[in-house]
Design brief:
Elements lengths: L6 E6 L15 E5 L6 E2 L6 E2 L8 E4 L2 H11 L2 E4 L29
Parallel strand pairs: 1-6
Antiparallel strand pairs: 1-2, 2-5, 3-4
Protein name: ETC complex I subunit
Pfam families: NDUS4 (PF04800)
């Protein structure tokens, strides 16, 4: 696949699975799909390729900024819409298990 035929993917950065907070999840990312398959290096045995665009990850504050950047470079792109977040989910805290006057019983 030639470098000019690669498509840039613009998507919203997902929430980290390591923490419950949403810090850093608002940014939009522009990434390229790998242009060639990875091959094992005969000396080290590590996988790698000569495609350096697969390493590029650009962050933008809005999707429009990422689209404008891709269009200014003449890159083809696709925009992945972020998944909808349910608003009816109430966040819970572990400390609520020990709250004074809670409605339901707590037992082992």
């Amino acid at each position: 696949m030639s470098r000019d035929s690669q498509i840039a993917r613009i998507h919203r950065q997902p929430k980290s699975a390591m923490q419950s907070g949403r810090a850093g999840a608002g940014a939009w990312l522009l990434e390229f799909a790998p242009g060639e398959p990875k091959q094992l290096d005969p000396m080290t045995g590590w996988p790698g390729s000569g495609d350096t665009r697969a390493q590029v990850k650009l962050r933008f504050p809005t999707a429009e900024a990422a689209i404008a950047y891709a269009e200014s470079r003449g890159w083809r792109y696709e925009v992945a819409q972020p998944p909808t977040v349910r608003a009816d989910i109430k966040p819970k805290a572990y400390a609520d298990n020990f709250k004074f006057g809670r409605g339901e019983n707590w037992s082992h």
